Amino acid sequence: MADHQNPPITALATPWGSSAIAVIRCSGSGAIELVDRIFVPAGKLATAAPNSVHHGFVVDPDSRARLDEVMVVLLRAPGSYTGEDTVEIMCHGSSAGIQRILAVLLAIGFRQAEPGEFTLRAFMAGKLDLTRAEAVNELVSARTAEAHEMALQRLSGALEQRINAIKARLVTLLAAVDIQLDYPEEDSGEVVIAPEAVVEVRDQIRELLASYRTGRIYQQGVRVAIAGRTNAGKSSLFNELLRQDRSIVSETAGTTRDYIESTIALAGVPVRLYDTAGFRDSSERVETEGMRRSQEILDAADLVLYVIDAGEGVHDSESAMLQQLRDSGRLVGVWNKIDLPAAGARSAPHGFTAVSLNSGAGLPQLIELISERILPASLTWNGEPVIDSLRQKQLLEAADSALGHVLEGLARQIPVDAVALDVEEALHSLGAITGEVTTEDVLSAMFAGFCVGK
Prior knowledge:
Mean pLDDT: 88
Oligomer: single chain
Distance between the termini: 14 Å
Largest sheet: 7 strands, mixed
Strand content: 15-25%
């Protein structure tokens, strides 16, 4: 990551591609004056009031030829997102037009922003802490309403406030230690750090740690594969879950020769859904390759919807795979075509849901079961702040470990000043979550995953 001074930087803040409007963000020392050099009417921006919007044209700095008609938003330090002078240029969303404007911005003195550099500057200016900085990226990448709401909550500072409240408890414990060390003659003989107080703080940390799985599943989602023998109804199930015809449905076995994927939301969780090639004995090279790829998808899936034709029952060749999926806890069995005479009186195997994907019978119950398996009740978001970054999790684990050492020290009755060192270690880890304590390497790794214009 570049140095933390504020040379002027620029980047496209909206996605590349044709659109009605694109936004080019400019920030840093002299940003307003630089943009003023390529803006018509000339001289308007340099003297403009903060938080103002201006209509005009971006022009070539040499020929003064017009490049695009634009609206410009002007924000003066420290009242901008980055805390610096900022200009946001709203231009037409033509890739060619965007490239021309970016080219002249770079030519007059702006530098191409690095990934996350605008948010990094906001952090360095004290506009937000690291939990809120991470929430910016999470908000942009949220794929369901629930994930969006969780990220918005963190962006508003809910997680930061929770961490700060825990830190305040530890600071109170350290203050009592300092008083005893500074005024030993007033030692009343009472325990300065009560184990019960440490346990309470540790419970709060562990509650946040337990929220990690919830945060991750809403943000990252799950992979669900539909598998089974050829012509069992896999593509029909895929289309039903998508509520559109994406996979070709045919009575001809082997119609799907490669996997098809799409994204849906179930129970507020983003689901990457795969329709895989059906399994059967085949010497045909393309079909065999499709089955090999399907097996790779199954191996990586978090959940497998295994479809069996009720008229044919379970084939001997499927038994081993079904047992493996049961043992791994990833199996959702689908007993399909129960409406056909061939199904007869054959009952569904234990753990399978009987459905007719043709008539829709049993489908609501199957979708409810899939939703429950994707998001167990224990992981459902209760509205409280959660963590969803590995960085936060590891730092909370470090704080939890340090407080474990505090309890061990108190039990062994070691000197209170030695115990206080572990309390300080826990405080240090919590401070690193919000960014009070951090390093260049940590910041570089964290912001590298951001979009360039954020």
